[in-house]
TrEMBL record:
This is GNAT family N-acetyltransferase. One of its GO terms (molecular function) is acyltransferase activity, transferring groups other than amino-acyl groups. It comes from Colwellia demingiae. It comes from the Bacteria. Residues 8-170 form the N-acetyltransferase domain. InterPro entries: Acyl_CoA_acyltransferase, GNAT_dom.
Length: 192
């Protein structure tokens, strides 16, 4: 199957696509990763002044990828964050929560395009950088590799980042309900 990138449509993530996004997220990341309440919370954290930082990639009206992004000041800096190393005001950092592309459609630039759309929207909201925690155990460490190619810089590694979520219902596709996967805290500084 040959797919041209110009057949992929990119739209803001809205409730119309929630069901498909949840299905894709749980298939790729593991059962319990995303549910109805979380998708509403995640999406609302990315909207300021009617500017939405979260997007879907569609092929024939089917979600083949999505990017969930929290707006600056709409997310909690926690023990997994190192703002003293970011070299930018933490109040000016959005959070790239999740990027997911269906395995059948990887390598087409969908993840990169979703990230660029999120960056553009976050900049319109006033963000100067974006933080993310990338899954180091992704196949061939592809998550960190992709984010690095998009300008991401490694800040710090965090073992057991998703362990607590795994004990509360999330079943990691590698570790089950006792996740010990490592997160790479990374930042992209935007060109303003």
């Amino acid at each position: 199957m040959t797919i041209k990138n110009d057949t992929i449509k990119y739209l803001a993530l809205t409730s119309e696509y929630f069901s498909q996004v949840i299905t894709l997220a749980n298939f790729v990341h593991g059962d319990g990763y995303l549910d109805d309440d979380k998708i509403i919370e995640w999406t609302n954290k990315g909207i300021i002044n009617n500017i939405n930082c979260s997007f879907v990639a569609l092929l024939d009206d089917q979600v083949v990828g999505f990017r969930s992004t929290y707006s600056a000041n709409q997310w909690q800096i926690d023990q997994w964050c190192s703002p003293h190393l970011w070299q930018v005001d933490s109040q000016k950092c959005c959070y790239f929560k999740c990027n997911t592309v269906d395995e059948k459609y990887r390598g087409l630039g969908i993840g990169r395009q979703l990230l660029q759309l999120a960056i553009n929207a976050a900049q319109q909201q006033g963000a100067q950088a974006g933080i993310s925690h990338l899954w180091k155990q992704s196949p061939n460490n592809s998550a960190v590799s992709y984010f690095s190619k998009c300008g991401g810089k490694l800040i710090k590694s965090h073992p057991d980042k998703w362990n607590e979520e795994s004990k509360q219902g999330y079943s990691c596709i590698l570790c089950g309900h006792n996740c010990h996967c490592e997160a790479a805290e990374m930042i992209i500084h935007f060109d303003n």
